[in-house]
Amino acid sequence: MSSTFFSSSMAALYEGYTLCGLTPSQNLSNSGIQGVEPVRDSDHVVVTDSRRSVTLFKVSDQKSLSSWTVKQGQTLTCSAVYNSKTKEYVAVSDSKVIRIWKEEDIHLDKAFKATVSSDIWRVHSAAELEPVVLFQRGAVRFLDSLLSAPKQPIEEVLAQEEAIRWSTNVVTESQQLVIFTTEQKGDNFLYLQRFNPNTLQKYRLERGEPGLSPLSFSASYKDKHIRLVYLYPNGHVYQSLVPVRGLAADEGAPALPLPRSLLLALPVGEGLLEAASAQVLDEAHVAVVGLPHPSAGAGKDFLCIWNTNFQTLQAGKEMKGKIYGQLWGYSNKLFIPHGKSFSVIPYECPKSSLASALGKLRQAKTEESKASTSVPSWNNILHEDKANPSKTVETRKTRTTRKSQSAPSLTNDQIMELIKTASVAEVQKEVEGLLSRTDVQDLQPSLGQLAASLVSRSLGEEAFYTPSILAQLVQTRCLCHSMCPDLVLLALEKKDYFLCQLCLQFFPDIPEAVTCACLKTFISMPDSDAEKVNLEPESISLMETLMAGERDPVGLQNGFSPATNDMDQSGGTEAEKKETTTPPEQICPVGLHKGVLLNEVLMTAYSDFFLLPHLKDLSPQHVVLLLRYLQFLYLKYSQDAFPQMHGLRSPTLTQIMDWVCLLLDAHFTVLAMTPETKGLLHNLHTFVKSQVRLFSELGKIEGSLHELNKMKVNKDIGQYSIEVIELF
């Protein structure tokens, strides 16, 4: 028997972060989150709470971009969705009022509203398709058709005591489908609404144990079938396959039986599950939240990824606080409310074989495949360099790596024991041997334990410290802050600022308190001490470019020239203008290396809510210095002549302005009462004023720019052409 190995990696849950806080109901029966829907791209979602608010988030920044609220006394009864065809949001309040608005709208009361004749259950939307409205009594309408006659009569599809429990939409190659489940006197049914042709099919789910109904449903589409996965309170996960094409059912015809197969029998501990959910990730993996880990103690709820092909647990993460039985998944991210936090957990599910599912795959590779394996460089790791090294270089590097592996090395357990007592030199030799292995990514859990042991001994023994090994471990991308929470603080204690820089670059989950600790250390460091620190070369190149521009003439900056400051420029001879020196705001207020370290802090992910209290601990002198540095960056970035550093890590203009706002929010009273900061605040005000003027001017030509996008491009263009476009 032969096996084909597709991947050497198991599914993985990466370190999560908090998208926002929760305000659960008083009896903690629900999380306060009604729904999560994707918007525009993989990095934006719209979150609807159970009361009155809809909020648009940029997920990677953990930041709310816009928020809309209905009036006091009104309630959102359907989670908002995004209509990608019209670039509008759609939600339902008080079960019958459909609200439609655009992102630039501020007040929902001034947006479009339409009242329908029957209660709505959900609105479902898919990319580039028209939203579909599902009514509580089972009828379905396209949104445009419904809005053309809002008071049209709506038929009742469900029986008298039948109620919808769950619904979703599924997109096939040719059409959009709506599926929903109902419950009636202990029986569970599935409805499949097709639109081409317009038919409704009803299925009866097989009965489980008496008194047990599914806790959650999840659906996916493949090979002309809808795959329905549902979780029962006893931990059993079942699968049913529903054909997309089927015969139209006669009105009043009995429901068709829907066969099921047992997918997983999960351990639930004592009793039955009360709040849990299962979500299909791909054809071989299911995420489950609210169940205990098989090897953990009772009373702890976990998020786990199970391989359904081989019945194996592949990844697990404990979720603190109460689990509400809610789980959403979009763009390789899981969204989970728990306790008082709404968390985002990135995940990965490679194609699996039996060996990888058991965690024992050591895939043999041919010489040809080894020759095509590239070795990571700083550019690859940080910026995914466009230029690929030549195959000759790759082959030479691969052979060097293979040679270094030929010598026998200790096992992971032996290295862990060695760390407890051996000298720095011995530990460094063995760990470097471990890191030279080609399967280092398979050792992720071991590397986390190894780093924690190194940090623990370094904290306990003043003479023991292995900076180069810790730096290499961070560069593997197998570590995160929660796996080794004392690493950044150890680096600060040892004044190992290169290691601090790496942690800020590679750890996606650094708490705001630790970020602020780094900020305080960096900004209070004398420039003379900072210049002695070895830092990542490319980040220094960026600062050198910025600071070299201090002597260059300043161009127009997004409609704002700092030399003018909106003041009268009349007067002054040409000779006087030539002798004009560089304005103080154009001179970097910190040294080269200190600027590099501050840039890393500016690029670290954070939540405004959690960062703001820590920023209030900064001294006024440090706040003013940081604001002056942010002003310097803003001016440099705004110059039309400033080259865009595409290949280098650098803060974005948005990140710079966000930090300005945060610092002003945290210290505005002190800054407003300090005479020395009057000029700085005036300049910041001028920046905002110039940006408002710029966007106002851009708004005047917005229509013309949209027309340019619609123009057909002439594909018959030679090597050289001139095209004249007239804008009216």
TrEMBL record:
Keywords: Activator, Nucleus, rRNA processing, Transcription, Transcription regulation. Residues 381-407, 558-584 are annotated as: Disordered. The keyword Isomerase does not apply. It comes from Notothenia coriiceps. Residues 382-397 have a biased composition (Basic and acidic residues). Residues 427-728 form the Nucleolar protein 11 C-terminal domain. InterPro entries: NOL11, Nol11_C, NOL11_N. The gene is nol11. The keyword Zinc-finger does not apply. GO terms for cellular component: nucleolus. Pfam families: Nol11_C, NOL11_N. GO terms for molecular function: RNA binding. It is found in: Nucleus, Nucleolus. This is Nucleolar protein 11-like.
